[in-house]
Design goal:
Elements: H1 46-66, H2 70-74, H3 81-96, E1 99-102, E2 105-112, E3 122-130, E4 133-136, E5 142-146, E6 149-160, E7 163-171
Antiparallel strand pairs: 1-4, 2-3, 3-6, 4-5, 6-7
Length: about 180
């Protein structure tokens, strides 16, 4: 899989040098709109966790295309490898003046599990569809292309300082991915 796809299990390391902080690109009409934060995220139950996970997954193409990582980063647990990889990819795109095009993402909740008593984490299974993605370099040459994909993901959601955080996104252990 590509380094800049939102699918779990993708290589989280961007090509080239390690990323460094870069300015956030200004949104334009050709960039995806930031998804609306659902009211259900205010809930402290499994429904709130599911709304947070869906929002986070659907935020991915906006983050990649704009470099606006603030909310994505705030919702990312420090132990989340998927989150770290996505943030590194967004920084790399900004640093190299690359572009991320497409990748519209739709996440559908498939199953909710009970909150883990010890950690407080709520595991959720999602079926996620992601549209075609094109990664281009500064000169607009396509350097990577990912076809439309559908994948099953296990999303682990927890609470930190009264807000939902994504602890990890990985291939659903019950799927054949």
């Amino acid at each position: 899989m590509s380094a800049c796809t939102g699918s779990p299990g993708a290589d989280p390391s961007p090509p080239g040098e390690p990323p460094s902080a870069a300015p956030v690109a200004s949104p334009s009409p050709s960039l995806p709109a930031k998804p609306e934060r659902p009211d259900a995220m205010k809930r402290e139950d499994a429904e709130g966790a599911a709304a947070a996970a869906e929002y986070f997954i659907e935020l991915y193409p906006y983050v990649m295309a704009t470099g606006d990582i603030e909310e994505f980063e705030a919702m990312s647990h420090r132990a989340c490898d998927y989150c770290t990889g996505a943030l590194e990819n967004a920084a790399w795109l900004q640093e190299t003046r690359g572009t991320f095009e497409g990748g519209f993402t739709d996440a559908v909740l498939a199953k909710t599990y009970q909150r883990d008593e010890l950690t407080g984490v709520i595991p959720l299974d999602f079926v996620t569809s992601q549209g075609e993605i094109s990664i281009r370099d500064e000169k607009r040459n396509e350097i990577d292309h990912v076809s439309t994909t559908e994948f099953q993901a296990r999303v682990e959601v927890g609470r930190r300082d009264g807000a939902w955080v994504i602890v990890e996104i990985a291939p659903d252990p019950g799927s054949d991915q």
